[in-house]
Amino acid sequence: MVAFHHLGWRKPAIRILDRPSVFLAGAVSALLLLWGCFFFSTLDSIPFFSRSKSGLCNCNQPNPAFNLQFDPPVSTFYDDPSFGYTVDKRITNWDQKRRTWLGLHPSFEPRSHERVFIVTGSRSTPCKSPTGDHFLLRFYRNKVDYCRIHGYDIFYNNVLLDPKMPSCWAKIPAVRAAMLAHPEAEWIWWLDEDAAFTDMEYKLPLQRYKDYNFIVHGWPKEVYVKKSWLGLNAGSFLIRNCQWSLDLLDSWADMGPRSPNFDKWAGILMNEFKHESDDQTALAYLLLKEHQQWGTKRMHIETGYYLEGYWVLIVDTLKNITERYLEIETTTGMLRRRHAEKVSERYGVLREPSLKDAGNEFGSWRRPFVTHFAGCQPCNGKHNPLFTGKRCRDAMNIALNFADNQVLRNYGFVHRNLSDSSVVSPLPFDYPA
Amino acid sequence: MVAFHHLGWRKPAIRILDRPSVFLAGAVSALLLLWGCFFFSTLDSIPFFSRSKSGLCNCNQPNPAFNLQFDPPVSTFYDDPSFGYTVDKRITNWDQKRRTWLGLHPSFEPRSHERVFIVTGSRSTPCKSPTGDHFLLRFYRNKVDYCRIHGYDIFYNNVLLDPKMPSCWAKIPAVRAAMLAHPEAEWIWWLDEDAAFTDMEYKLPLQRYKDYNFIVHGWPKEVYVKKSWLGLNAGSFLIRNCQWSLDLLDSWADMGPRSPNFDKWAGILMNEFKHESDDQTALAYLLLKEHQQWGTKRMHIETGYYLEGYWVLIVDTLKNITERYLEIETTTGMLRRRHAEKVSERYGVLREPSLKDAGNEFGSWRRPFVTHFAGCQPCNGKHNPLFTGKRCRDAMNIALNFADNQVLRNYGFVHRNLSDSSVVSPLPFDYPA
């Protein structure tokens, strides 16, 4: 740039018109300089030059959220021959590997700390119970509805990824593979095939979990004091996509049938929990051991809301809950407002103040978040003899229709009778006023 | 700008250093002018000034894609008492209503012209065939997999929204309700319960459809000349979310069982197409009538790729297609590269040059886009007597596993045997080299 000191204050005002060519040269130079800065700053978007996050991005560019067509030819953990998806392939330094991947894929970085990926699944063969697959389809549809409303992704696994980890243990390899296939996800949420969302608006309180890596629903006293394998339920858990979690999954799998230590652990579990080895008892053991040790706790037993709710305590309350919610809506106009399904979260936020006295979980009149039909075994039909198959099927119908009503509302319809899955009625304007 | 003509060619080269202040003034003026242009163009991003698409946005803002919690208290069509979701509630001016909604929800505007929403569904009651629901679950899982890879949303409808439009007609009220519940979507894509994606990478060539509002797969000559109701297949169609389409759905529904004109139309369809009234024959009639009229055509019969492919022509080719693709991958390193599932589209783009001689549809070795098991009736089991139930089930297994392999690859596994749905093997590094 030209130095100014020689101009002094003694010169009269600049007379641009005396030298229009000089003026123009100045203008052009400035523009050239600016363009040069812009050009070099956009080199980041060219794969070979990409090393850091992009800052501003144009919303009118393809896919302002995720760039699904961008995978730079820069090595990541995927290119490491020693990396593998199976349980036997130990992984180290996963936190750094994920961070590097996110750094190379900047379109996935915004809000990545809240990103949830749901994994569910069932056997690969048809259910033995005649209505089994029908209910599995409805439970899956319910989960997909929840994901669509909240912008989550979901994967349904129906193959045995590790033949030595069948049955209840099969979720471990599935969750692990999902973590590795989805480095953009911060949380993996396992949900059993027979768990349904019964509050389509409720969201995981992730801000409460910043110090935890594993959350499961249960009763701490039952696990830590009474050592009951029923003190928690492994049908629904959140696991953070990090090295600590991969190590936990390794420890958990080590207690399972693929492990040479299976018999040893079976003995320990019988001793501590008076129960045979299964994924849930093993998990209870892992929780207990962490609880008993000094140091930071990364596993949390949630008691504040139905991350997993036992259907027997829930289903008979759904009719009353429906009426309470309708009552609220009768007096709160904004909650009756029709809207695009995509902005449903807004109405969840608007509804919260009306629910401040609702409580949560057993005894409350808040919609239960997740209702789990533990013991019903809709697929093989071998339900807990405490209840009949018909009781289970009727209850599943009620819960699934209760949930479906929250979805169908956005399409203009409702099941007037929670027990009738087939019949729906169109909703009048300003329902339920 | 200062005119140059007075400079002439007789002047010597510009001597900037003679007038540094003029040069600087030129530079500063250019920058001020540029900044001014930028400022006024970004006024769009300030709500009170927003009347058009937002330009730049910061990717690090909360939820750069969709703001799910924003629904301003400004009237839209949802707040109009005369607006309704049912087929009998005629809607007018839908294009303007959608545009207004998008304008009020700017986070949904970017790329809205490409946004696809898939609708599928089945009956509300369990299938009569013992394996029916099992296959429906797998077909649904397949569709959800495709959506997850491409960022589409999907809705599975399993209630009868209009009791007077049962069976094959039930898709019309479902598609219509989806259009109204999803003003953010430009295209609604109806897919039958027994249609599967068999090319997980292929994308709809939407750029070819800018002049069309309705696309279905078929053979123009069969429809327009031979007047065959089999000249198209209503099991897969794209319909643009616009007023023209709502009017088309009204015309289509008018030919159906809810309409007082049903008998009249049944007579006309029998006369023209020699076939009883159903949704497909009615659609063929609508295509024929548009074709015969003068003026702009908005309906298109796609012949270039399997928007819907008949399984009988496809299933026996899948083994060979698998081998051809593996051959290509053996010689093209980038296609063997493991990656996050979320960036799979990138590898679809990379694969295209290798497929330039593959052709498309019958006789090609390109993966078929959508394979439809028309005639198999997996739910009620009343298959076309041309083939056996076992032939259908075996074929569905092969196609679903063929598709599943493309998904499972991202989780590190493969079905080595396309006929075996249960067994998968871990993939070695650099497979299939």
TrEMBL record, chains A, B:
Gene Ontology CC entries for this record: endosome; Golgi membrane; trans-Golgi network
Chain ranges passing through the membrane: 21-43
Keyword Cell cycle belongs to the record: no
Alphabetically ordered keywords of this record: Glycoprotein, Glycosyltransferase, Golgi apparatus, Membrane, Signal-anchor, Transferase, Transmembrane, Transmembrane helix
Membrane topology: Single-pass type II membrane protein
Protein name (database record): Galactosyl transferase
Keyword Nucleotide-binding in record: no
InterPro entries: Glyco_trans_34, Nucleotide-diphossugar_trans
A single GO molecular function term of this UniProt record: galactosyltransferase activity
Primary location group: Golgi
Family, similarity comment: Belongs to the glycosyltransferase 34 family.
Organism field: Cynara cardunculus var. scolymus (Globe artichoke)
Subcellular location: Golgi apparatus membrane
